[in-house]
Design a protein that fits this description.
The complex is a heterodimer of chains A (420) and B (568). Chain A has 420 residues and is an alpha/beta fold. Chain A has helices at 11-19, 29-35, 40-53, 61-73, 91-97, 104-111, 125-138, 167-174, 185-190, 206-212, 235-248, 261-264, 268-271, 275-280, 290-293, 312-315, 326-329, 373-393, 397-419, and strands spanning 80-85, 113-116, 143-148, 151-152, 178-184, 203-204, 225-228. Chain A folds into three domains: 75-263, 3-Layer(aba) Sandwich (Rossmann fold); 266-361, Cytochrome-c3 hydrogenase, C-terminal domain (Cytochrome-c3 Hydrogenase, Chain A, domain 2, Irregular); 373-419. Helices cover 42% and strands 7% of the residues of chain A. Classes of the chains: A alpha/beta (420), B alpha+beta (568).
């Protein structure tokens, strides 16, 4: 009998497990891959792409690979995950069904142990509650809590109940025993669609709920929360968060809103493939007009890319290439990931506070002021190269002026240094 | 014999939060209650907003029934404005609807309901050679071979041996109602895993046109946001369209060669279950897949069949058909809202008033809809029956194939009346999927043909006149007929209500205290083990429950409001 089996398996499962095969030797990674119909080559591609998705240098691919291999070889040590659904639409879980690298089956069969999920659990009712109870008992302080959906605060939270318990009650029981929490999607991150005015149910995100109800870990420390907003969250943002943790044995670097920088570190506007049209002042005015049919910028149609931090233009959706993300197919971003923008501002209202930050493909020509001669030369080269590209695309005058001033100053400094 | 009450909460492998209570006597269900456990108030939030934005909000009613609440919302606004949309836009919407529907039906059968019939652990003791014989007797699918089945078996074994059963912990393995031979279980587990791959391909079609999924973002009141331009990289061009076609071809193989053989084989191997789960036999469905920009000519018929009598079928014929508009009412007698009335969606108000579970009073967030003052069952079964009644040849053809397959395994003539059942809903969903594939192909071909004529139009801009406009849109979504109802005043939303498929099916007792379809279908279900009520799940899952949809909300101004129920 396999000693790793959870202690509270029901009778039939135990019986079947007893008559089943004796525990096999843990499979080597290659054997695992074979079972999944994955070639070693495809797996390497996966490791490379996931490394990039995490914002790690390509040289760390080996480390990511090693972590995954270690995970696969370790057998029963798949990190346990308890996934709770509050006020939500299950869209974030659904988005995982669309992931290809890794797939949802790769995630739940090989990488994590999804001990409780109302959407996918074979058991229901008492048996489902038993699964939750088992994992909670066995993995005190050792499981990752994933929350999908917001927490209703009006009317004592009666707007949402699972097995007779409100989200508030469930958080009190479960959250203190987690090692960390992931708020997946905009609902869990900041309230999402149901928190739009007048917010009839008093919906709030996970972090705010933990603060409001003063829920901490059992030792009194704050429970670390990682927010992954988006409606739904990109599946690669949770997959990359999991991989980051497995690889580097720490939580990813977060911004002030507790979002991983690898996914939310830049505005959509900064990585948008239509940015050159913005800089050149070429805008679609209406769906189907000439500008729209030539792929021009959607700013005047209300695109919220300039106000929304997310990696949609980098990761895209569905793994089908070809600019498959909202702006890419011709619809303005409506800021679903950004609190105060998505479900808050009207779709066709123009974004405010448009950032002039250069796209990530440009060298840092505005904000960086290197001091040494070598670095200065690099800055000059960068300024000229970046500037030339921007001019070729017809950059707007403001940006051009900034660059010229910058390049001139750098060139003067460089010239002064070499004269000396 | 005493009556025992069992409560299943949460009902899992569905969208949303559902609780089901049953009274059991002598191993049979003698009474049942269905209770929706979550409310978010999305209709309330829509009041005062721009009608062009509504679809972005309503789509978030549900991430499983994603897409459908977006499409029906723009239809409602277009209906209120009496708008026509360009043919290209209609065809692009149709392709998305078909691809989404195929994905949704596949996921429902394999990932959300198959584990009610398939014993994963039993697959461990199967002989892969015998599984191959069984599978090849059903279809020529290339992966139906012993080597593949042995790989799957090894994978399951590795997983079970790891001791971390994850989502499979405490499943109903070894339950006395599980009757498939180990080889059938192994074949089904292999197809469970393969179906994940094919539902992804169907989703990729949706993503190419819809920008993302769940929650597409290519719609607009008046058409779609996809520019068509064969000479542009950043537009719908031949590369994108060819990708759609490639994915279509791949998906077709799976739904014809795997899904249809699997559903009919499981239905036949569980023939003793064919008498169970009938419930409400008034069937309501919407016509869909419009062939024109106005919605007056549909490729898939829909309408109303009272008392399961096909001769009394009455079709719904066009967008805005008053036959539908005038017969829909909702009751809050047994729901957690203030008051006790039965009204048209246009006249509803909805003020939440939670009072805990009271089986004789209010016990659910779901309202109870009626059509012509009677409860109605909606979903693929209603849709297939309507298409058969309307004389749709393709539907009749696929249904005959399905019935013949069941009959070949049971070695008996299987009457069409067995469709009024738990397994009948699964069979109908599979038949509908076959028709949806034809829709995919027809609309793809029509789009190419129309583009070839030089028509690149995708959008007619809406104009919002001063004053008040009312309208509704309907859509035959994967879980059944969905309708959104809107009142616009001076360009802003005054009232918004959704009447959703899962509301029709999961609703509590109505104004006449008649049971809703879930409740009625549970009556007389066998229950072999009260502690492990697998059979309750079988029947409830056969409807493909979606509770986020069933409960949305409406406006709290309290007058002349439309309420919306999402039931997809």
């Amino acid at each position: 009998m396999n000693s790793h089996l959870p202690p509270l398996l029901d009778a039939s499962t135990s019986a079947l497990a007893t008559t089943g095969p004796t525990p096999a030797q843990p499979l080597a990674l290659d054997e695992h891959l074979e079972l999944h119909g994955l070639s070693r080559r495809r797996f390497l591609q996966f490791a490379t792409s996931i490394t990039a998705a995490m914002g790690l240098p390509a040289t760390m691919t080996d480390q990511v690979l090693a972590a995954v291999e270690q995970q696969a070889a370790a057998g029963p040590a798949r990190p346990p995950v308890i996934w709770l659904h509050f006020q939500e639409c299950t869209g974030c879980t659904e988005s995982l069904l669309r992931a290809t690298h890794p797939t949802v089956e790769g995630l739940i069969l090989d990488l994590i142990s999804l001990d409780y999920s109302e959407t996918l659990l074979a058991a229901a009712g008492h048996q489902a509650e038993q699964a939750l109870h088992d994992s909670l008992t066995k993995h005190q302080g050792g499981f990752v809590l994933v929350v999908e959906g917001s927490v209703p605060t009006a009317d004592n939270g009666n707007f949402c109940k699972v097995a007779g318990k409100t989200p508030q009650q469930m958080l009190h029981e479960i959250a203190p025993h987690a090692i960390a929490a992931i708020a997946i999607g905009s609902c869990a991150s900041w309230g999402g669609v149901q928190s739009a005015a007048p917010n009839p149910t008093g919906a709030i995100g996970l972090q705010e709920a933990l603060n409001l109800y003063q829920i901490t870990k059992t030792d009194g420390a704050a429970l670390p929360v990682i927010n992954l907003p988006g409606c739904p969250a990109s599946p690669y943002n949770i997959l990359s968060t999991v991989l980051y943790n497995l690889t580097l044995k720490q939580l990813p670097e977060l911004d002030a809103q507790q979002r991983p920088k690898f996914a939310y570190g830049r505005l959509i506007h900064e990585n948008c493939e239509r940015r050159p049209h913005f800089d050149a002042g070429r805008f679609a005015e209406e769906f189907g007009d000439d500008g729209h049919r030539q792929g021009w910028c959607l700013y005047k149609l209300g695109c919220k890319g300039p106000e929304t931090y997310a990696n949609c233009p980098v990761i895209e959706f569905g793994d089908v290439g070809g600019n498959t993300w909202p702006v890419g197919i011709g619809h303005p971003c409506f800021g679903c990931a950004e609190q105060g923008v998505g479900f808050h501002k009207p779709l066709h209202e123009q974004a405010k506070n448009v950032s002039l930050t250069s796209p990530s493909i440009f060298p840092g020509i505005i904000t960086e002021h290197p001091g040494g001669a070598t670095l200065t030369s690099a800055a000059v080269a960068g300024a000229i190269g970046g500037g030339a590209l921007v001019y070729a695309l017809g950059a707007n005058s403001k940006l051009k002026a900034l660059e010229e001033a910058e390049a001139q100053a750098a060139a003067q400094q460089s010239s002064a240094v070499s004269d000396a | 014999m005493s009556i025992n009450r069992i409560t299943v909460d949460p009902v899992t492998r569905i969208e949303g939060h559902l609780r089901v209570d049953c009274d059991i006597q002598d191993g049979r269900v003698v009474n049942a209650w269905s209770s929706g456990q979550m409310w978010r108030g999305i209709e309330t939030i829509l009041t005062g907003r721009d009608p062009r934005d509504a679809w972005l909000y309503t789509q978030r009613i549900c991430g499983v029934c994603t897409t459908v609440h977006a499409i029906v919302s723009v239809r409602a606004v277009e209906n209120a404005l009496a708008m026509e949309i360009p043919l290209n836009a209609q065809l692009i919407r149709n392709i998305i609807m078909a691809a989404h529907g195929i994905h949704d039906h596949l996921v429902h059968f394999y990932h959300l309901s198959a584990l009610d019939w398939v014993d994963v652990v039993s697959a461990l003791s199967a002989d892969p050679k015998k599984a191959e014989q069984l599978a090849q007797s059903l279809s020529n699918w290339p992966n139906n071979n012993a080597a593949h089945f042995a790989q799957v078996q090894a994978k399951v074994k590795t997983f079970v041996d790891s001791g971390q059963l994850g989502i499979f912990a405490h499943g109903y393995w070894g339950h006395p109602a599980m009757k498939l031979p180990p080889e059938a279980n192994l074949m089904a587990v292999a197809h469970y895993l393969e179906a994940l791959e094919y539902q992804r391909k169907a989703n990729q079609i949706t993503a190419i046109l819809g920008a993302k999924t769940p929650h597409i973002q290519n719609l607009a009141v008046g058409g779609v946001a996809n520019p068509i331009n064969p000479n542009e990289q950043s537009a719908l061009n031949m590369e994108r369209l060819a990708y759609v076609k490639t994915l279509m071809d791949e998906v077709q193989g799976f739904i014809r060669e795997v899904y249809l053989p699997d559903v009919t084989a499981i239905a036949a191997l569980y023939a003793d279950w064919l008498p169970y789960g009938q419930g409400v036999t008034n069937y309501l469905s919407a016509p869909d897949f419009p062939k024109d920009g106005k919605g007056t000519d549909f490729a898939m018929p829909g309408g109303y069949i009272p008392n399961g009598d096909m001769a009394q079928f009455r079709p719904i014929t066009h967008f805005g058909d008053p036959f539908f508009e005038q017969n829909v009412k909702e009751s809050i007698k047994h729901a957690w809202y203030d008051g006790n009335w039965t009204r048209s969606p246009y006249q509803e108000d909805t003020v939440p008033k939670y009072t805990d579970f009271d089986e004789n009073g209010a016990y659910s967030w779901v309202k109870a809809p009626t059509f012509a003052d009677k409860p109605a069952q909606v979903g693929p079964l209603a849709n297939v029956l309507a298409m058969v009644a309307a004389g749709d040849e393709r539907t009749r053809g696929y249904l005959k194939v399905a019935m013949d397959r069941i009959g070949a395994i049971t070695r008996s003539e299987v009457p069409l009346s067995v469709l009024h059942s738990t397994l009948g809903r699964h069979a109908a969903r599979c038949v509908r999927t076959q028709v949806l594939y034809d829709m995919l192909e027809d609309n793809y071909n029509a789009l190419l043909a129309n583009i070839t004529t030089g028509d690149m139009t995708t959008f007619n801009p809406p104009t919002f006149p001063k004053g008040e406009q009312m309208g509704f849109g309907f859509h035959e979504a994967p879980r059944g007929i969905l309708s959104h109802w809107i009142v616009i005043e001076n360009g802003k939303i005054k009232n918004y209500q959704a009447v959703v498929p899962s509301t029709w099916n999961a609703g509590p007792r109505n104004q006449h205290d008649e049971q809703g379809p879930y409740e009625a279908s549970l009556m007389n279900n066998p229950i072999l083990d009260e502690q492990r009520p697998l059979e309750v799940l079988r029947t409830v899952h056969s409807f493909d429950p979606c509770l986020a949809c069933a409960i949305h909300l409406h406006d709290n101004q309290g007058h002349d409001i439309i309420r919306v129920n999402t039931n997809l």
